[in-house]
Amino acid sequence: MPFDFASVPARRGRSARGLANHLAGHAAEAAVARVYEDRGIPICGRNWRGSRGEIDLIGRNGNEVVFVEVKFSRTHDLAASHVTAAQVARIFATVDEFVAREPKGLLTDVRIDLALVDGSGRIEIIENAFAG
Fold this sequence. Notes:
Layout: H1 16-38, E1 43-49, E2 54-61, E3 64-72, H2 76-81, H3 85-99, E4 110-117, E5 123-126
């Protein structure tokens, strides 16, 4: 399985399982970034951290800024279940913080996608996942 890192040795301060999950998450983010780039959306930011939270991937599709939250788990349904209301609120606050620095500020066209990656490496992208 492409994201199975169970044999990774433990490092100080992080359990073997914690390290495996961390590395699997980064591998999932890299795979999702490749999908966006293959679709012609260059990734210009990874793990962008503001004062309110972190955005996994940031791409540019013309004038639109595309923010991507990546969730990895054994299944897509399980990955989606890891998205909490509090996390969605942090994502929106972090997006606002990022676009405030754009030339058009809060008038910048944005899209927030959710990318689900399962244990076999299959990727499902839900565009505008948090639109109401």
